[in-house]
């Protein structure tokens, strides 16, 4: 039986001394561009992330796996040599556990210990507290089949990350990077009023960009631009494709408000103005009125999200020294 991928490397992945060195560098850099900045920003929201952030539907993963099959020359993920996937910025492991249904081994990577403390476990899942900009310090070259990254790229030094990714990916490996944008309410059987849904969506845009707008990190603009400007250099990867999809969830108003509480700008607003009324109290009341919600716990709201993907393959890799 062949040894598992990274046999002998797990100690490096989880080495406290190495991580401490990186943490010291994060502190020294001390700005929003520093590796690990995201860890401090989201640690306090870890429990809310795990409970309320949306999961991606099967058709999103299928699009990624189809691309991985093309990159590998026709080998399906989880079969043959397609064994190892990384989930970068894994948070509580929502994507990690989905990848583990297909790949032989999955490593979830996140700089936040609090996020990893909430992570979903599995027999073929490992987690590592490592910044994405340091991956090649911990993983052997040309060893990874898929690097997946959801809701994370805009927080990174993207060119530094791509440089790490091209070193650790196999020549047949690929990157799948994706993000969702603002939620929208859609009319359905329980709430058929299209005009009410349209007004609720306008109210959500006003809340997002006006009420808590000043508390968004400036990287939010990359999401508005669908990651335009965050592509790799031609000297790093040869093929970059884009895909646009949608996902839909049936949520209760309680769940939707929990999702809004998981936003980092909401947490920043509450920290800055602890004596002000919680803006979500009034927002909930207005949404309930517009959408005709009478039971906040009933999963009757059709909530949709646009999802956009960057699919990247054919890494430009340096020559390895002879054995």
TrEMBL record:
Keyword set includes Methyltransferase: yes
GO biological process: methylation
GO molecular function: S-adenosylmethionine-dependent methyltransferase activity
Record-annotated Methyltransferase type domain positions: 86-177
Keywords: Methyltransferase, Transferase
Record family assignment: Belongs to the methyltransferase superfamily.
Name of the protein this chain belongs to: Methyltransferase type 11 domain-containing protein
Organism per entry: Chlorella variabilis (Green alga)
């Amino acid at each position: 039986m062949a040894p598992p991928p990274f046999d002998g490397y797990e100690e490096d992945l989880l080495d406290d001394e190495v991580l401490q060195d990186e943490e010291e560098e994060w502190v020294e850099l001390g700005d929003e561009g520093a590796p690990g900045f995201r860890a401090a920003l989201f640690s306090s929201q870890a429990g809310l992330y795990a409970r309320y952030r949306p999961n991606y539907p099967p058709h999103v993963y299928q699009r990624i796996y189809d691309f991985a099959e093309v990159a590998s020359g026709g080998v399906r993920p989880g079969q043959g040599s397609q064994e190892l996937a990384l989930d970068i910025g894994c948070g509580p492991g929502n994507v990690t556990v989905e990848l583990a249904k297909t790949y032989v081994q999955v490593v979830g990577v996140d700089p936040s210990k609090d996020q990893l403390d909430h992570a979903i476990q599995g027999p073929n899942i490992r987690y590592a507290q490592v910044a994405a900009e340091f991956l090649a310090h911990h993983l052997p070259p040309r060893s990874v089949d898929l690097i997946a990254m959801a809701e994370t790229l805009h927080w990174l030094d993207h060119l530094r990350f791509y440089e790490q990714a091209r070193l650790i990916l196999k020549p047949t490996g690929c990157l799948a990077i994706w993000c969702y944008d603002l939620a929208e309410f859609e009319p359905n059987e329980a709430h058929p009023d299209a005009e009410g849904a349209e007004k609720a969506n306008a109210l959500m845009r006003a809340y997002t960009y006006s009420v808590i707008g000043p508390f968004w990190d400036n990287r939010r603009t990359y999401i508005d631009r669908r990651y335009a400007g965050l592509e790799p250099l031609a000297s790093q990867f040869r093929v970059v494709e884009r895909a646009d999809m949608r996902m839909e969830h049936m949520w209760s108003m309680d769940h939707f408000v929990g999702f809004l509480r998981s936003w980092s700008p909401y947490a920043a607003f509450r920290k800055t103005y602890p004596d002000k009324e919680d803006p979500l109290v009034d927002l909930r009341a207005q949404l309930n009125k517009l959408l005709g919600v009478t039971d906040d716990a009933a999963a009757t709201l059709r909530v949709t999200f646009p999802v956009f993907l960057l699919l990247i393959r054919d890494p430009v890799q340096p020559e390895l020294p002879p054995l």
